[in-house]
């Protein structure tokens, strides 16, 4: 989907863009068909929960202004987390800028169908479905000692020349292999399986549930994620550590429902008609690939975007928002540097490192803490000490409107945590609540969890 967004952005700057899509099927015409019958074997998380968040909407408003309307037409819904402010919040008065935190979202197949339609209608974009890349082509170097990519070779043997090859193949990209074959130095890649496993059920009903508290709620060795979707649908996800073998019982719908029913703030999310059974997913890597190593590009004429550059634990729902920001950076970089491949490679790396890399680093740090907390809860050991500033911010957010909005901005990707902590009002709130413990969400402890899973 990030590849389609990038393609349309670049085409609107006058470029001829060819999108190579390995899957063969075109996007269906209706939301029901997109969810029920569209096959996207190349996207493992296609029918898992997704959120578009406020930063995604803001970028689309700037770069692809018709997207919000197209999403609404497809049945996607507007979400306002300010409406789910805790009852303990002292001041609930609306403020200027609150509208910036609203976003429109839906199920991945429905949203992707909108972007596929957008790309199909764009005059400068050609989408070739059922076409896969076997290798990249190379030519005369634009930078001494650095290979320069001049196009791609398809599995059918066709060579397609290009001024720039954009890798939007996602977290399973084969870029390292392609580039090694044309003599590129190894990418600097960091990759680790944090060990999360997800169990999700989708529901449909005439009265979609209201959010009571945070969308993601940690409860010892598990967390619950509840999301609104399009056309009166929604999802509930229970996720934990893949090493927690007791959680495998959640594959059984009755066990899944029994657990969620025992969570007071999420039980009403079961009040609908299930759309199939429980959908498990595991093996999600936190990974980050650097294409400039020791200040020197490993290749020119080739750049990654979105998950092909970096991906993290999907429970936070930031992947599409970070990806579309990355696509926006690519558009601006190409505007300035397409005629200078070496400058383009360096400039895109610098913009990426400054604007979107902090989101990846912050999420990786959060993943490490959360998996350690889950492990401690499962093994009955002492959990790691929480970050004092983060704990104080979450405690302050229960009562202070500046802290609450700051937390929302971090969640919705409209601000980095470092930026939020630097604000005088937030800093004062954090200092007032230094040492306070955020209220714990109600839900089963470890002993009760095991009872629910084994019953």
Distance N to C terminus: 41 Å
Average pLDDT for all residues? 94
Write down the Rg: 23 Å
CATH class identity of one domain: Alpha Beta
CATH homologous superfamily label of one domain: FAD/NAD(P)-binding domain
Helix count, DSSP H or I runs of 4 or more residues:
15
Which band does the percent of strand residues land in?
A: 15-25%
Relative helix content: 25-40%
Could you say what the CATH topology of one domain is called?
FAD/NAD(P)-binding domain
For the biggest sheet, the summary is: 6 strands, antiparallel
According to DSSP, the number of beta strands is: 20
Which helices and strands occur, and which strands form pairs?
Blueprint: H1 2-11, E1 17-21, H2 31-36, H3 53-63, H4 67-73, E2 77-79, E3 103-105, H5 108-121, E4 125-129, E5 133-143, E6 146-154, E7 159-161, E8 165-167, H6 175-181, E9 188-193, E10 196-204, E11 216-219, E12 222-228, E13 233-241, H7 253-261, E14 273-274, E15 279-282, E16 285-290, E17 292-293, E18 296-297, E19 302-304, E20 310-311, H8 319-337, H9 341-355, H10 357-379, H11 388-397, H12 401-411, H13 417-421, H14 424-432, H15 446-454
Parallel strand pairs: 1-4, 8-19
Antiparallel strand pairs: 2-3, 5-6, 6-7, 9-16, 10-13, 10-14, 10-15, 11-12, 12-13, 16-20, 17-18
Helix pairs in contact: 1-5, 1-8, 3-8, 7-15, 8-9, 11-12, 11-14
